[in-house]
Amino acid sequence: MKLRCVLLGVLLTTTCSLFSQCTRQAEPAEGAPLVTFELDWRAVDPQFYTISIDSAGRGSYCSQPHTEPEETPGDPYLLKFTADPRDTAEIFRLAEELKFFQGKFDNLGKKVAQTGIKTLRYRDGTKQYSTDYNASTNPKLNELTSLFQRMSTTFELGRALQHKLRYDKLGLDEVLKRMEDLQKSGQLAELQAIAPVLTQIANEQNVMNVARQRAHRLLSSSALATK
Fold this sequence. Notes:
alpha+beta; 6-stranded antiparallel beta sheet; 227 residues
């Protein structure tokens, strides 16, 4: 029992270290005002992630894949991207209307389902504010949370495509079909950020034609979205 506790303690320390490393890697260079969203929910995959976008649209995403307590955490996933100007403007508009996250927004005292500990941060020079919450009734906070969550969904699907392209080309079509369905229902965001892997799939002769066509369609929709 003591050995198990020691091992769990070591793994927890390692996970926390990776989370700190992930957070540092996901922040663009200092200078412009910066908004960061973090989600820590150990029951899902990824078990935590962080997205940072500055006022110039320079963005970074870093996530840690889910692992069981006894397992050693895998390598974090890091993606640098340029955000859609409309999303950038929306993020900073909502941040301003939420007073740059000064105050409490969590449903304190109310019994709500656990959906992970979320953190929103704002940094502009020496000004730094943040708020932690599980769930909130604030519509503007929920709108901003939803946007960041849609980004993570998109980026993680891009990560899945990279893995399938390397190890399981036959599995690409299933992921791409899901992406098309999510795109039609408005559940993806910043699709242009994963355009490189979609382009690679669309041009890969060893990939099924149906998957290549789906990749082409998604590329077309991402190009239209950024105009």
